[in-house]
Structure formats: structure tokens, C-alpha cells
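Narrative of activities, Objective 1.

The group set out to show that a structural description can be obtained from nothing but a protein's sequence at a throughput compatible with the screening campaign. Below is one input-output pair from the validation batch, recorded exactly as produced.
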Amino acid sequence: MATIQIRTQIPGPKSQELMRRRQAAVARGVGHATQIFAARAEGAVIEDVDGNRYIDFAGGIGVENAGHRAPAVVAAIREQVDSFLHTCFSVAPYGKYVELAEKLNSLTPGDFAKKTILVNSGAEAIENAVKIARCYMHRPAILCFEDAFHGRTMLTMSLTSKTTPYKAGFEPFAGDIYRVPYAYCYRCSYSLKYPSCGVFCAHHIEDSFQRVVAADAVAAVIVEPVLGEGGFVAPPPEFFSILQEICGRHKILLIADEVQTGFGRAGALFACERYGLVPDLLVSAKSLGAGLPLAAVTGRAEIMDAPGVGGLGGTYGGNPVACAAALAVIEAMQRDNLPARAEKLGERFDARAREWKQRWPLIGDVRGIGAMRAVELVRSRETREPAKRETEEVLRHCHRHGLIVISSGTYGNVVRLLVPLVISDEQFEEGLNVLESAFAAVAEPAVEAASRRA
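Output recorded for this entry:
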């Protein structure tokens, strides 16, 4: 039996009315990937206020790896709610904060003593990671990468690469932040090709220490193991071994931003594991809390202890209900081996996507690891001109036909997969069929038009 069920036009009348109210009441700057309003969700399915049912390939932007309303998570939340909602860990601490910190210390990469702080969001965690690194190193500069996304607060917006809509109009930005090219092989900043390039982009960081910022001024390099908003770019495996060696030689800390890659998405609990990367500090968020606001910075104990008492924390950081949810998420990840499930989903997506690439020139690149997969759309494979308008058409087709999927990429031309890892095989195939029909609807008229011009 099909999961998708469309009863009205999309968006339906109730969603349209809510959108009219939203336009009057909510600031314009808050964007929407779809025009529907959710009423309920379960597993990998969302139902809107008009009774339409969708398969969810967006997962709340990577938040629902364990699935919407995972039963164990809901049970843990209810149990905690029956005890208390908030005391503030800085006033009257509680055990679940400590228990979650212990779990993260044991699960993150690295065979050394670790400590953790808990905060509310990925951006807040990135800000704290930078604070901790600067405090420990007594150095001001941070090195980040082109096409990276680290958040929308002042510091994290400064670290983020994409200008519109994230940065334009919000100047000036935080200082002592320096940007270098990422290993985006499909759009190499140096017009080279892997593997003959020898991963030039990684080695070229050494040159940046001569021409951009002195190595002994750099506190940390911050990097996403796989670009998230930047287009799900998975670098060659050598990239991180070279980067780690450079950081070690110059005594620069390495911060891994696993906000979107973490908790099973990449085919391991953390994407760093796929690359053999052992960061000094690791930032996690999104699927850690299964939908509740929660993020963490976990790192070497001596680094984490650099700030003095009161230098870290916040009123809501490590809320007990969110901590209860996170502990249930970790248990589910291990019990159901969701990272292995992510790998299987990714392989199935990759097989289908490579067939699509053979059929339609619109698809320029297929990439990713685990279930963190994407296709990049181009108007010409020769010029690689980004096909942003066509990407938007693909998304609209999917939304009208019962599949929630979102884009990414600096040029807005990447369709990405962020499906809850608990999705059934039947639901996954149903969603892929809708996505295929969207590519056919957008790509085939373009192919026919090109043939007529020829």
C-alpha cells in the first residue's frame, strides 16, 4: 500500500490560510522549503493540516535520523517531563547532563581523556568551540573553508561561506577569520583533477600560512567532514590525513563540525570515523536531540578545561528533556545499528542516481557517503553552469507529488538526501520513484529542446 496520499491541491486550503497568517505575523527572513503546514509526523512520514501524507526525504534538515517521534525517544521525554522540565544545570545540576556527557566522551573519535559541554544549537556549539580553542591556544585566528556553512549567528555567519541569503546585508563580520578552498573536486578552485592533483587544495594550506595568515596566529581550523549546506561534498580520503598532519605540525587545533554529518548519517556514528580523522574538538547537534534543541562540544579534556568557571554555559544548555531524548537516540543508534542502515540506503540511492545521470545530462554529479547523498544539477556538463531554476522545478514537482526534499549548495543546484534512517524499504523506493519522475519531468523537455535546436 502506498504511503503517499494527496487529497487536495498542494498546498491545500488550510495550509494556504496558515501561510497568509504567517505572512502577516512572521518576519520575512524566515524561509520555507515547502508551502505546506505539518499536522503530525511518524517515522519517515509527515501529514499536513489538509490530510495529505508525504514521505520525508528532508528529516527536518538532518534532525530526524532516528525518525519522527521514535517510540523510545518519546517514552524518555515523557518520563523526564514527569520529573521536571528545567532547573538550569548551572544552578541545580542533574544526572542526565552528566550521563550524556559521559556517552559523548566515550563515543567520539580519539583515545584520550575528553570532556563535553551541552548547549542549544549547532551555531551556539560552534561559537563555544571557537571560544574554547582561542582560550586554550592564546591565538586569535580561525581558518575555515569555502562553501562551508557553520550557522547564522554573528561569529558562525562569519565562518559561513555562502553570501546570499546568509550574509548579504549583515556586515561587518567577525575578524581574524580566514577562508581557503575545500576539496570540492567537481568544482576545483584550482582547475585540477583528482587524483592527479595530489590533493593540491590540502597541501596549499601551507601556502596560506605565508600569504594569508601566519600559522602561529591560528588557533584552529574548522571543517565539515562532508559539506552540508555547501552541497554534500565528500572530499577524497587523503584530504583529512594531510589536513591533520599540517595542523599537528603547526600545533593548530582541528575542530570537526559534525552538526549535519553526525549520528549515523554518514554510515558511522560520526563522519570523522569514515576518514580516520581524530579532531581535537567535535561539534554535534541536529539528530543528537531528535527534534529537541540540543548541541554539544566534545574534546580533549585539557582543551575543554581552558575556560575558567562561568566562562561556558547558558540558561537552557543541556535541558534535561533534551538530554533524555539524546540518550534514547544514542541507544537506538546502537541497538538498531542505524549507521549500517544509512550505508545501505546510500548505496541504493547511489545506484538509482547513477542511472539517472546516464539518462539525463541535467545531472552533473552524484556524490556523498552513507545516507548523506546528493545530485548536482547543471545546464551543461561542459561548462557546469548551475541549474538553479531546474532544481527548484524538481523540488516543486516532488512536493506536489508527496515527497518532501530540499536543496543545498552554494549555487542552490544540489538535491540532497536527508531521509530518516528508519524509513522502510518500500517507502524509500516510493520516494525515489517520485524523485525520478521529477527529474524526468524537468530534464526530458530540455533534452528534446536541445535536439530540436541541433
